[in-house]
Amino acid sequence: YLHQEEVVAHEFKDLIFSLPKENGWVASSLYKYQGFWHPIRHLQGIITCQRHFQAQDSDFILITTPKSGTTWLKAIVFTLMNRMQYPIVQYHPLLSKSPHDLVPFLEHRLYVDNQIPDLSSMNSPRLFATHIPFSSIPKSVQDSGCKIVYLCRNPKDTFVSMWQFSDKLRPREMGTRSLEETLDMFCRGVSIAGPFWDHVLLITFLSSLCPHKVLFLKYDDMIENPTVNLRCIADFLECPFSIEEEESGKVEEILKLCSFGNLSNLEINRTGKLSSGEENKVFFRQGKVGDWKNHLTIEMVEKLDRITEQKLRGSGLVL
Ligand code: A3P
């Protein structure tokens, strides 16, 4: 992490080092590119992806805000789409691979470190994930008929989850960052793919204009009513559950396989690592709504609520 600035590819140097810069949450700095903040490695990935990724009409793209339940959504959509290929739970790929290995991130995995992957051998429909804000998404995603499933989460739990996550990833010698300091950064929009609210608002607008293109989901709703949301995803991705599947309990089976309790207890997710180096277990913490009550003071809650109210005013969106 410490040397990421030193390994910026020559072609990106002029652009990246002219951008506004702030201290990051983990070790690397954040740079403001097209209105959103990114660590340098992700940023190179975003720019490479903007230049080279060609979306196909049949692609499905999961766009999420960081710490909104991306890991869960990846597991669910992968299982849903591939349920004919992997009908038997005992042999399912999720039992031996992290959801992040099954559904790659565009900017953190496929296009990271200046790689330009050859995606021609992928079977369609192809499934990708990203935290790239819609305004920076590769143009072919906007222009093609590909479908987007968008996931976000209430800002207070998003913030707490992000704070805990970054604390785990921070090199020990850098010490911890206080909750106050981190909250201040989050509220100023200085967080990975932040400002959080702008990320969500961009998509809300698009999903209301083009409901066939974007399905807008909230983690909190998915936790409250997983079956309704899973059916909704299946309908949107044009792979609805048949009557036979409904009667045989397929919806519940997928939800059970992808549940926090099941995934977080698998050996692969307890002890495995991603190729990018992170331990799989850092993506599983509590998987609940409302943990913010255990961490935030009244003043912090007021501050976050005030910003959320200001940012979302007039949008019709409630987070
Ligand atoms: P908490 O830190 O609040 O527990 P992301 O996948 O976008 O990084 O988000 C991580 C958050 O999703 C964490 O929230 C994590 O515990 C939760 N999560 C991971 N897998 C989950 C699952 N299968 N079901 C519900 N929540 C899950």
UniProtKB/TrEMBL annotation:
What EC number(s) does the entry state? 2.8.2.-
Q: Which InterPro entries match?
A: P-loop_NTPase (IPR027417), Sulfotransferase_dom (IPR000863)
What are the residue boundaries of the Sulfotransferase domain, all occurrences included? Answer: 57-316
Query: What organism is this sequence from?
Result: Fraxinus pennsylvanica
Which family does the record assign? Answer: Belongs to the sulfotransferase 1 family.
Q: Which residues cross the membrane?
A: none
Determine if Metal-binding is one of this entry's keywords: no
Listed A to Z, the keywords are:
Transferase
Q: What is this protein called?
A: Sulfotransferase
- PANTHER family documented for this protein: SULFOTRANSFERASE SULT (PTHR11783)
Q: What molecular function terms (GO) are annotated for this protein?
A: sulfotransferase activity
